[in-house]
Amino acid sequence: MDDNMQELDPSPIEESPVVNEKDSYFPLHSPSSPPPPAHPSSLGLSGHSLTWWLLRTQRYSSYAFTAFLTAHITNVSLIPLLTRSLPASDTYLLLTRPYYQSPLAEPLLVIAPLAVHILSGVTLRLYRRRQTALRYGAESRADRRTLAWPKLSGTSALGYVLTPLVLGHAFVNRVLPLWVEGGSSSVGLQYVAHGFAKDPWVASVGYTVLVAAGSWHVVWGWGKWLGWTPEEVGWEVEERERGKRRRWWVMNGVAAVVAGLWMAGGLGVVGRGGEMGGWLGRQYDGLYRRIPILGRRY
């Protein structure tokens, strides 16, 4: 070899390889194990990557929305299940609703957490798709089409199913009264019961899918935050499968109980409240007729 030449050891192009993370709302490491070391990012935010920030944004936004959801389910399902009376349940609803529909509480507990939760999930999926394209050098659209999208977890898939249902529910019960009447003071459980009576098929199917998707999404999401899902089992190999099966049954059992209680009050009591008559019924009909596409059924 020429004396002027020096032999160098081969070195990788990147100092640290890109980790192929599973596409879910949650980091790959379990709470019982130390987190992987943070890699520097172009964001300059404490040395954490964009994925790290999106995951934590999605997690903490769910805390505030869960507080609202607990109060909401109590008002529209659990209290009707106990009282078996729509007028009596509406009294509790009208007393407590101002606390989470005030000009300050509603943006902080409902609108902002929900928007942040959805946007961070979509952004995370698009960002991981972009990282995959960069990893494989897919520069053109044709190249990117050959790459598979990151795999969806069950919780993530339920989130995408739930998003249009939640937005539609909010439009009918909150946005529409504000738009037409300037407020929702006259909208309560009797308004919901009137909608069930006028179009029971659409209302029942939509409500059932909303409750089922919401219950499993929330329960499994919180199970992941708390380290209770089957993937978090860290026992010996021979006990791991048994532990995973046990946790799977527990998580689905809790979700089924939540959905059952929610459905029992919402569909079993409110959904069977019947059509309102007189001036109130005509007022409700006028609101429901403003719903795009489905409004013609009223």
Give a written overview of the molecule:
The protein has 298 residues and is mainly alpha-helical. Helix content is 64%, strand content 0%. It has 9 helices and no strands. It is globular. The chain starts with 49 loop residues before the first helix and ends in a 10-residue tail after the last helix.
In short:
The protein has helices at residues 50-83, 86-100, 105-135, 141-145, 154-181, 189-198, 200-226, 237-266, 278-288. With 298 residues, it is an all-alpha fold.
Kindly list the characteristics that best describe this protein.
0% strand; globular; mainly alpha; 298 residues; 9 helices
What is the H-and-E element order?
Answer: HHHHHHHHH
**What is the overall number of helices?**
9
Helix residue percentage: 55-70%
DSSP E strands, number: 0
Secondary-structure-based class equals: mainly alpha
Radius of gyration over alpha carbons?
25 Å
Q: Any low-confidence stretches, pLDDT <50, length ≥5?
A: 4-42
β-sheet strand percentage: under 5%
Shape: globular
- Average per-residue pLDDT, rounded, comes to 83
Distance between the termini: 89 Å
Please outline the major beta sheet.
Answer: none
Oligomer type: single chain
